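Intended use. Records like the one below are meant for learning the mapping from a protein sequence to its folded structure. Do not use them to infer anything beyond what is encoded.
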Amino acid sequence: MRIDRSAARASVAAVAVVAVIALLCAGIYALGVANPATRVPVTSDVAGPFDGEPSAHYAQRTRAQLDALDRGDDRPRWALVAFDRHLSDRQTLSVVASTGSGRHALVLRQVALHVPLTDVRTPTEVQPSATGEGGLVTARIRAADRILGRAQGLDASQRRAVDVAAFSAAHLTSGCACVIGVVVRGVPDAFVALAGQPDVFSVEAMPPDANSTFAVRVPIPGYAGGYGTEPDTGAVPSSSTERYPS
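Structure written out for the chain above:
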């Protein structure tokens, strides 16, 4: 019997192609098993009030969110805590420690700093901070450096911005009562307890799988209007701490 060599070669080639495809599929499957796809965590881009949102509305919104949390959930998560007045470093640490120890303890991660000045829109700086007065002092220095850095290179037409930066930086480094909020990590039960503490305006809890890269927007204590609409018509005094309003 004669063998059709062309047909035989074609058959062998087809078998080889099928074998290669099978090997590739097996390799891809093995790679997938060894390196499963990483689940992208749920995140919130911003914690804090919306543009133009009145402070009272923000407080009500976060309170409703807090009331809906499972008090028995032990999964730690992030929360933005806003204060109803400007606090000193010691007052801030006292509030953070107010929920107790153990599972109710809160860990400080960031601090929001703002120098109050009547009818002047001063910047808010959010900086990393370790728990303890030393961590807050370091955060103040970093905040002052950032404010002054942004003011460098401004021309004469932006003199007001330069004056505001100098005023804010001087008082941040002088130890003023300038803390308006903190980012902490803890469990829902601790957040609920924290919301009832004096000086706490609001507590916004993040989802348990949110990471720590969310932006922070903190309402200015004492201002009831919409976020981002604070007045900016007042005079900017000298940066001398002797003229800092008590």
